[in-house]
Amino acid sequence: MNKKVLTIFLVLVIIVVGYNTFQSINKEISYREQVKEIDLMVIGRLDTLRKMQLAFRDVNGKYAENFDVLFDFMKNGKYIKLKQIGDNDGEVNNAQVDTLFLSPIVEILGEENINVNINKYKFVPPMDTALFKINAGTISQNNVTVPVFEISDPHPFNKTNKPLKVGDMYNAITSGNWK
């Protein structure tokens, strides 16, 4: 009788320990998948903000210091694009350059997003409650004044990683730190 009770007890302990081990591993896998999914959303939004800043700089010679200025440019500004018409065959130049003034929203977000609520881009996904931190200015690099900007996630979902950001206030780079 004692042997039977002990065997049943040990089988139950093995089942409970096995279940708890499985759950702890499964919980970690689920968490990592969730972090990856959220990071991809944040990266997508930061990349779009980077494109907006680059278009702003192309027109204004500097980066926008806040979202109000950047989004006003996106809604009401004009993005200048040069288009070559004709041929340039090396010897004879039959080409002309035409200047096009385009909507920044259409150029960056695409025609299908012309009526999008652009203000949503200042919020960190997926909850869209925290604001990205934005900063712009200039630095001196090799005796040349260069405009710089930085947009970062102030409250990263994964606390063990460094916050995702695009641009840098101390170096003239416009890429993200995830690359």
Kindly describe this structure.
With 179 residues, the protein is an alpha+beta fold. It has a domain at 2-70 and 117-167. The chain is 42% helix and 20% strand. It contains three helices and five strands. The chain has helices at residues 2-60, 67-76, 104-109; strands spanning 79-85, 96-102, 133-141, 144-152, 165-167. The strands form two sheets. It has a three-stranded antiparallel β-sheet with strand order 3-4-5, with helices on one face. The protein has a two-stranded antiparallel ribbon with strand order 1-2. A hairpin with a 2-residue loop joins strand 3 (133-141) and strand 4 (144-152). The longest helix is centred in the first third of the chain and has 59 residues, at 2-60. The radius of gyration is 26 Å and the shape is elongated.
- Taking all Cα atoms into account, the compactness measure Rg is 26 Å
Structural class: alpha+beta
For the biggest sheet, the summary is: 3 strands, antiparallel
In total, the number of strands is: 5
User: Which range does the strand content fall in?
Assistant: 15-25%
Topology order in helix (H) and strand (E) letters: HHEEHEEE
Low-confidence stretches: none
Helix content: 40-55%
